[in-house]
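Deliverable D4.2, example record:
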Amino acid sequence: MSTRRGIGAGPGVATGPVARFGARPVLPMTAPGLGPDEPGRAAAALEHVAAELDRRAERAGSDGSDILAATAMIARDPGLADRVADLARTQPAAWAVDSAVGEYRALLAGGHLAERTTDLDDIRDRAVAWLLDQPVPGPPSPGHPYVLVATDLAPADTALLDPAQVLAIVTERGGPTSHTAILAKALGIPAVVGCAGSFVDGQVVQVDGDAGVVRTDPVPVTARTLLDVGPGRTADGHRIELLANIGGPDPVHGVEGVGLVRTEFLFLGRSRPPTVREQQAAYREVLAPLVGRKVVVRTLDAGSDKPIPYAATGSALGIRGFRIARARPDLLRDQLEALARAAADTGATPWVMAPMITTATEAAAFATAAREHGLTTAGAMIEVPAAALRAADIAAEVDFLSIGSNDLAQYTFAADRLLTDLADLLDPWQPALLDLVAHVATIPKPVSVCGEAAADPLLALVFAGLGIGALSMAPISLPAVRTALAAHTLPQCRELAAAVRRATTPAEARATARRLAEEAGQFRG
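Output generated by the structure prediction step:
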């Protein structure tokens, strides 16, 4: 048995035969002559792709729906349409689309939107396939469950994968916070991304999404037994809230509460912001089934890889998150008003938090705005090193803190989370990142982790040992985290966390945690 290492992106272990993703459509060596309306055909192809993405967004879960809506916006981008139209006056439509998308791709590669090159590739492939009357590349259908292997996966394909057929995912590209990783976790599919190496159809592999490895010709494994219900607590009864991340009015059953409601689903894919009444109706639908349980709503987190034109958002180092209120205070005001009305309609008492809070001054401004609308529990997300280092000052202005591990890693290591080549720096086991989490955890107010790191059962033990009181993750990840906590006492978690913080590399930290967890409890990651 040989092992190929990548980055764990979806928890769990699965074994099965490989089936590779369909090949991209290739332009013929010789272009045909120009038709009577090549610009019109090219425009029709882009609109066909956008409409297909819209239809897929309607069928996808909340995580996939938001991402697909954003991709449809790219397909309808006026700048792209204009460039395609210009090229289509001198070359066939398929060639014009290929060239224009290639130009856009070159602009994004290496920048803060590098991960969106996968979306551009998908738009190109779908449009070219439609224009050439070729099959659109997609997941295979071998007639039996399989391990899907691909160079990379676009959100349009990942969001609609059937977990009953796709046992696991392996991609050559991608990082721990890529769209493939996020959607794989939401679907509960074990996944390893950034895994180089060739695989052939029918080859049996074992995908270990916890360890980030793919084993070829493995021995069969037995699935782990998971506790599916009950609150989060350690073996000696110490409570750790286990909460769900949702992206809209998703059905969530058997959870203690919701630690992150992403509100971007209301804003993406639109030419103008939703009205207060529209938002009120949507928030009412989210809150109604959760009355009596904790629900944390994050205000608009646009910018970077979630551009919203009317919000004047910018790059990862520009206008995003709470900073949007500098230019568009009405967006925050309307959102808080709608949430307050929905709370009154349902009898719920939502907590509300702002993303990208950097200073105590910003925290105070947000808390004041929330309370002026009758929202009594206001918090701040800790996603910037400056906020983590001065967490005590920020906590003095708000009621709770929530650590966004994905962005905190990005800004700590100056490594854009959308760049595959820097994925190793975004490893949540990086000692410097854990140091920042440990510092924030000392604040005597409720502190949670709501980034992708919270879904790692082994890392959950470290967080518990550091003093984190709540973990929020994709609902599918809750049973494994609950099981890991239930097998270890709080003193064991503290011992484990202390040992991990003495490590100098992510690999050493992870190996130390795994060894101590297996010695102390029943952990089998």
